[in-house]
Every structure is written in structure tokens, then in C-alpha cells.
């Protein structure tokens, strides 16, 4: 938005709306994907980068719309929680994209290894600390 982009260095309203959308999606994809020089960031960290850039790099309204329309932790994604339990994201909350419902598959603190679900919107002290894409 500030004209620091390439190749033409255009700014503000001179940037086509589609280009503003692509810029947000491209940065999110770039930071949440593995690269030869670094591991992928967590989706919530990708959103933080977008919010930090909403001051002068990205259109804030587009960043907000992106957050509302993208599952930060999509269904089927394997995750490790902050308490070391392993699970798979099974459902989303419409207004809490970063607090999904996770089916726990491995819980070393339990004798019974049957899967169960945990709703991260109700367990605020537990966070997703790692994602496994493959």
C-alpha cells in the first residue's frame, strides 16, 4: 500500500483491488509453507505478519476479510498442542478461526488411548504449537 512493492512501486488506490487480495494470500502462503532456508510458520504467525503489515503494506480490510474466510487450521491438519497431545483438526468455529475443535489421538497422560475431542475455544490455556503438513 505504501508504494514499496515491485515492479512499478504504485501505492494506495492506484493498486488494483485484485492485486491487494493476491498480495495478502501470497504472503500468507509464503510464510506458512516450508522453504529451503526455513521451516513453515504456524498459520497464526502468518496472520500476525499480515496484521503487522496492515499498517502500511496491506489493505487492512482485505486482511480482515482474509481472516474471516480462511481456515487457519483446516480440517484434517495434524497438530501438536502446547500440552504435547497430538491430534487432528476436525471442526472450525465460524468466528474463531484460530481455536478449532481437535480430535486427540495421542495423550500420554491417559491410560485409555481412545480418541476424544477438545474444543480450543473453551480451553484457552491450550494452544497449537506445531502443525504437520504431511
Helix content estimate:
25-40%
Estimated structural class: alpha+beta
What is the C-alpha radius of gyration, as a whole number of Å? 18 Å
Mean pLDDT: 90
Number of strands: 5
Categorize the overall geometry: elongated
Helical run tally: 3
Number of self-contained structural domains: 2
Trace the largest sheet across and list its strands. 4-3-2-1-5
Largest sheet: 5 strands, antiparallel
Measured distance between first and last alpha carbons: 35 Å
Contiguous runs where pLDDT drops below 50 for at least 5 residues: none
Quote the beta fraction: 15-25%
Order of helices and strands: HHHEEEEE
Strand-helix topology:
Elements (H helix, E strand, L loop, with lengths): L16 H15 L11 H11 L6 H10 L8 E4 L4 E8 L2 E11 L9 E4 L8 E5 L2
Please describe what this structure looks like.
- By secondary structure, the protein is an alpha+beta fold.
- It has 2 domains: 12-69, no CATH class; 78-132, no CATH class.
- Helices cover 27% and strands 24% of the residues.
- The protein has helices spanning 17-31, 43-53, 60-69; strands spanning 78-81, 86-93, 96-106, 116-119, 128-132.
- A 5-stranded antiparallel beta sheet has the order 4-3-2-1-5, with no helix packed on it.
- It is elongated.
- The two termini are 35 Å apart.
- The relative contact order is 0.14.
Amino acid at each position: 500500500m505504501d508504494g514499496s512493492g515491485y515492479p512499478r512501486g504504485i501505492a494506495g488506490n492506484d493498486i488494483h483491488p485484485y492485486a491487494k487480495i493476491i498480495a495478502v494470500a501470497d504472503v500468507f502462503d509464503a510464510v506458512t509453507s516450508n522453504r529451503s532456508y526455513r521451516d513453515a510458520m504456524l498459520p497464526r504467525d502468518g496472520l500476525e505478519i499480515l496484521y503487522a503489515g496492515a499498517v502500511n503494506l496491506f489493505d487492512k480490510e482485505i486482511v480482515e476479510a482474509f481472516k474471516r474466510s480462511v481456515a487457519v487450521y483446516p480440517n484434517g491438519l495434524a497438530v501438536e498442542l502446547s500440552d504435547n497431545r497430538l491430534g487432528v483438526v476436525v471442526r472450525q468455529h465460524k468466528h474463531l478461526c484460530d481455536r478449532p475443535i481437535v480430535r486427540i489421538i495421542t495423550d500420554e497422560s491417559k491410560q485409555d488411548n481412545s480418541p476424544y475431542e477438545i474444543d480450543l475455544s473453551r480451553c484457552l490455556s491450550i494452544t497449537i504449537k506445531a502443525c504437520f503438513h504431511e
